[in-house]
Amino acid sequence: MKLSILNHVIGPVIRGPSSSHTGASYFIGKLARGLLLDDLLEARIIFDKKGSYAKVYRQEASDLAFVSGLLGLDLMDEKFKRSIELAKEIGIKIEFSLSDLGRDAHPDEVVIEMKGRKRKLTARARSIGGGMFEFLELNGRKVMLTGDEYIHIFEAERGYEPKGIEAYSLESEDGKIVIVRSPEPSYPSIEGVRRRVLEPIFLPMKGKEIFSSGFEVEKFCEKEGMSLGEAGLRYEAELLGKSEQDVLKVMIERYKIMKRSIEEGLSGEVRLRVLKPSASTILGKLERGELAVGGLHTKAAALSMAVMHACNSSAIVVAAPTGGSAGVIPGVTAVLEEELGLSEKEIAKSLFAAGVIGLIIGKRATFAAEEAGCQVEIGAAGAMASAMVVEASGGSCKQALDAAAISLQNIVGMVCDPVGGFVEVPCHTRNAIAAASAFANADIIVGGYENPIPLDETVDAVYSVGKMMPWELRCTVMGGLAVCPSAMKFMPKME
């Protein structure tokens, strides 16, 4: 699978609190509704009873996200927060249930049974981390739809067989549906066959990946005389088939969304279920010199917590690389902008450096805590931020890769154990510590520490440890801090 920095690492743009359980759920619901080709009357959303969705779908707003997508609401529409009520008001029946989806079901697998006025459709899909998703089956027929291509749907008569094209076909109540994926909005028409086009959810990837590992990107930077951020910009432009200037503009817009999420988190108009908002209080004491130490690392920590305040209030955030880790990159970037006086272009290049680290982690491992624990979410964000600090300060590609590596080496084995199933404890402080430590990691490497275990091997080790974790420690609210006596009082809020 191709990975894009803007689609999968510094993005997508989602509603919080979770990219896996909120962001991807919205995208799955939206695409499922489009594939129905009919007015929706009923939908039954089925989670695997052993999986992560079953444990946290209410706390992490998966229910609101699926329904918002099925209703066709825009991501920015504030009706997202009352989508279930809205469905009732307009006469659409929604049901959530748990079942055994099979021994090999992904922790975030879902089956959606939809009924329209004339058609029915059953879709099986899964969220695979960082807002990414895969549709696996439509009406029992195997497919692979990931939201990064145009979907051309041809409504043909029974017995029609597509020839000379790569397509999925399935029977419907009134004929045959033929589905063709393409990076382009146009596609040759078929005489006598009606066609509909579903827009891609992510940016279409028309080109090729020019590297996929730390080893490859280091060699690329040496050959081209580039920094890690410049290499990331080149990679994304080649992959998306766009100019570097156009890709820079998109990244700058992503940073503007990050800054708005900081502002929203500091506004006081946030709603948390477990914690009391504290980011603005910490910043106030920092400015007055009332903290034990203070400094830019503490400011980055507080700003990262502000983003998490907003994220947990269903605000619009940038998954970086996930919703649960969405605070780290904005907190560090905002401090770098202020302390170093970076231009928009320099900020964007620093974010592309972070993006390359995320690409390597995504390629060799996963961004899903449901698969490998928090080490691949907040741990990944900390590694990305460490490389970003090196890039912003003028360090080399190798130094940025090494800063990311030592960041990951110090969080190997970090589990995902959200108290009450909410993305608050320990997520807020883990984001804060990851943001603060990014500066130390960068200084250690630039200062002369020689890292003996390269990034690729470090990521492989992290992933292997993640696969050894029992499922109780992978976002199921069944272990770690989530089952401490003091944490149990938050469990009733799950109902």
Report on this structure.
Helix content is 44%, strand content 16%. The strands form three sheets. A six-stranded mixed β-sheet has the order 3-2-4-5-6-7. A four-stranded antiparallel β-sheet has the order 9-10-8-11, covered by helices on one side. With 495 residues, it is of the alpha+beta class. The relative contact order is 0.13. It folds into three domains: 14-152, D-3-phosphoglycerate dehydrogenase, domain 3 (60s Ribosomal Protein L30, Chain: A), CATH 3.30.1330.90; 153-199, no CATH class; 214-494, no CATH class. It has helices at residues 5-9, 19-36, 52-56, 62-71, 83-89, 214-224, 228-240, 244-266, 279-287, 296-311, 328-340, 344-364, 369-372, 378-392, 397-409, 427-446, 455-468; strands at residues 13-15, 40-48, 93-99, 109-116, 120-129, 132-138, 141-145, 150-156, 168-172, 175-182, 194-198, 316-318.
Instruction: Give the C-alpha Rg.
Output: 22 Å
Structural class: alpha+beta
In order across it, which strands form the biggest sheet? 3-2-4-5-6-7
- Strand element count: 12
Helix content: 40-55%
What about the largest sheet? 6 strands, mixed
Count of domains: 3
Shape: globular
As residue ranges, the low-confidence spans are none
Number of helices: 17
Q: What's the order of the H and E elements?
A: HEHEHHHEEEEEEEEEHHHHHEHHHHHHH
Beta percentage is 15-25%
